[in-house]
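Input sequence (280 aa), recorded before submission:
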Amino acid sequence: MAEKKISIIKASGEIENWDPKKLVNSLRAVKAPKNLIDEILRHVEKDLRDGMTTNDIYEHAFLLLRRYDLPFAAEYSLKKAIMLLGPSGFPFERFISHILRAQGYTTKVGVMVRGECVTHEVDVVAEKDDERILVEAKFHNSPDIKSDVKVALYVKARFDDIHKRLSETDDGPRYNHAWLITNTNFTSQAIAYGTCAGLSLTGWNYPPKRTLQDLIRSTQTHPVTCLTTLTSAQKNILLSEGTVLCREVIENPTKLERIGLNKSRIKSVVEEGTRLCPIV
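Predicted structure, token format:
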């Protein structure tokens, strides 16, 4: 007899069949050991039922990971942690600036740049050697909202307006290209347009081997919202004070003292952060 298929509801409301490979792959991505992956899969499948949401499954797996090892849980929560940088999107701009700095760029956030027609507020300007980039940091507070071709067209049009003025005058530095970075995914049309128009695109799962999550993990620029040893209120206070990376509280634990944590809690936060983002 064929095994009964179980319907799972995605955050978008779309219904799909339960596929254990998706859970297994997400756990492998955070380097969870095989025995733990097998245990989590058994626990999740034991409680599976028609109509469960992908968030239900995520929460179940997250709690099991947290019970086993806090840094695994923190890494597993990376996508959700970035969502917590909102709702204004400004912490996301600072977060992208940190990622670029970790790659050797010097950066400025919220730069006003004159174009041929209008003046534009550019989220991040990044420079390295002869490369000067205008970066649009597009934040979405839901994983199912994609950056579509209209966003890509908007970013390219702004770059063209700025580039046109600078190519006709000697007033100000030249920019090489524009780069659109988002915390979710792109539509196929946005990718096709970006490829054709020379617009760099980085999203949660694009481009292969250079996705946003790849950049975060390779540069160890995990957001402070990853830390499971902090409450939501404590994370929000740190963000409001301009602290975006977990590395910032590891290197300067007095930030945690200022928001009211005692020595024992500070030690727990620093230990988790150090295991998640080792200082080399």
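Checked by second reader. Residues 7-68 form one domain.
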